[in-house]
Amino acid sequence: GITVFAPDNTAFQAISSSLGSLSSNVTALTTVIGNHIINGTTVYSPSIFNGTVITSSQGENLTFTTNSSGAFVSSGQSTAQIVQTDILTENGVVHVINGVLLNTDSDQGAASSA
């Protein structure tokens, strides 16, 4: 299975100035997209709780926090709130987030073992 944390339209509008520089750097753009994906694991909302850490397809940690405001996912210095959960697809699940996780770091060693 696969799990995708998909930013909503407002999230992309909020970073439109950053997207220009990312679009000219295919490696960085690929990494940012990969840091929104968990490959090989389908993570449903009941598995998302405070302190959960899961490795993205780029080998970076996705760290989850929950509080009275909701559930959040962080990668690098970016954090987004999970605003819609458990949208089922043929091979996994999508969760909508209200921000883009602008983490351009990757760890291919961790990615291959994830």
From TrEMBL:
InterPro entries, sorted: Adhesion/Biosynth-related (IPR050904), FAS1_dom_sf (IPR036378), FAS1_domain (IPR000782)
Cellular component terms (Gene Ontology): extracellular space; fungal-type vacuole membrane
An annotated GO BP: macroautophagy
Cross-referenced Pfam families: Fasciclin
Domain of life: Eukaryota
Domain FAS1 residues, every copy: 1-101
Gene3D superfamilies: FAS1 domain (2.30.180.10)
Protein name per UniProt: FAS1 domain-containing protein
